[in-house]
Amino acid sequence: MNAISQRPGLRAVGLIAAYDDAAALRAAVQRLGAAGIAFDTFTPRELRFADDPPSRLPLLIALAGFGGAALGFLMQAYAADISYPINVGGRPLFSWPSFIPIAFEIGALCAVIAGFVGYLIAARLPTLYAPIDEAARFAEASASAYVVAVRTDDGAAVRRVLHDAVFITELPDLA
Amino acid sequence: MSNTSAAMTDRICAIALRPRAGLWWWMVFVPAMALVLLLAVSIVWLFYEGVGIWGIDWPVAWGFAIINYVWWIAIASGGTFISALFFLMRVEWRTSLNRIAESMTLCAAACAGIFPILHLGRPWLFYWLFPYPNTMGLWPQFRSPLLWDFFAILAYVTASILFWYLGLLPDLATLRDRATTRGRQVFYGALALGFRGSRDQWRHYHAVYGVLAAIMAPLVCSVHSIVGLDFAGAQTVGWHSTQFPPFFIFGAFLSGFASVLLLVVPLRRVLHLQPWITEHHLDVLGRLLATSSLFVLYAYAMDLFTTFYGGDPAERTMFLARLFGRYFDVYWGTILFNILLPQLLWWRWARLYGPITVMVSFGVIVGMWLERYEIVVTSLHRPALPSSWGNYAGTFWDWATLLGSVGLFVAGVLLVVRIMPVVSMSEMRVLLERRR
User: Fold this and answer.
1) Which residues lie below 8 Å from residue A96, measured CB to CB, with a gap of 6+?
2) ipTM of model
3) What domains can be seen in chain A, in order of their start residue?
4) What is the chain B residue with the closest CA to A115?
């Protein structure tokens, strides 16, 4: 969404150019990059580009996982040693090996929830409506079309770069 | 060539978006719902009258509820092994199976999840398992494997739902864009959350999916280890064994692959999925099933060996009763269904011949239930003190609850197959493109 929603105020148009497969899309994207034109892609399957920055979500998941496990462990230690110490046949209060399974489960649960919620935030979901949905044939991007979207005030120049697209549709009056 | 991304998308969307379910669907769904009704009646009667309606008593105080719980949670594992473990190993054939397998996991985990609550004497106090601040100043017993189990199931069920849903997002977006009726557009549109496949959405998706898979794989192993510790943690004849955690993971492998096979063979036929779920997939699943039956054979052999090598007379007495006593048919049924029958699958023609794979995998599902019956009931009916010996048999309500949970599972699977894409379309597109 980024490239399209930037630069408000210009008399801009949105162009949607579709390709048949990932290779053609990659070539088009490379030309756009060379021409210094900002763009976003919409593809029916996972597609990575060489200049994609790495996602920081795995770091968040790791923090949530290890943090959750540590807190889970401390909770059990606190309950067994401080809040409700109970002497069962002289066994040690701080029986740490028996706290590991629950600490692991809490850590895994925190990690998965952090990953899911973090993904929704990073992917800006839910976004049930976006202006680009108005573009004709944009819906094909979820099934067969490999789409590149450009927001520009010089539609003709972009059309020249994307001349080999299967189809190009225009989304007028974005401003 | 028909096996392109477009043909695949058309076919999978058509299954979810077809206006009417086929006759076969109703012919299975209606009986399944009748069983769900039976389950509901059994639960209402149980909550009204108490666990006395079941066959449990001293010394066999754990009965069908625990057997069914362990059975269902092991069945559930199949989807996680296929979707997470084989994802991490970059196994290609996993792609067309993982949606069916994961959906099966959710339905089986839902069935498993109700039994621990049903088996509580006072089910309305189940939340006492949760460490919440309470006026009694009490904590749950964190040293008990039974409490570990509560946390394990909580984490596993939640993580399975989120992992499944994350994998569904791109396909829900496809269905949203393909749906023709207003109701379906709204339904899939809301579920897809506005996923559009933008560059950032895929970039983060790739990272998160891989990491979640790396969490799910050890998580499912921890769940089954802990289920094993539920038993091994007790100083009960037949249970108190260090091999139980891996033993239960082996059992999970066996019943997980069997249940996936049992679903995939008929579904592939009625939904015409042969171009994507090929003979190769059946071949691989059959080999996995046969291999995991050898794992289980190892565990059974060690169970026998440690009992007689260990020299505890109570253990030996119990084991002899298991082999030749009142429940001998349960033990030998387990051997027949879990060990002997699956060996058929070492032959390729047997793996590819539908009736045989269905028979063997259904046999394993039955055999795994018998195995849990053997572990729970035969162990408990011969405690160390002969004065405490006793017998056990399930009552009508035990069987009604078991059958009802089967109905719940079948109905759940049918609903998912009816409204969700049965193959992960976005992952298949990567695979089909690579093949081209």
Assistant:
1) A73, A77
2) 0.94
3) 2-51+139-171 (3.30.70.790), 57-122 (no CATH)
4) B208
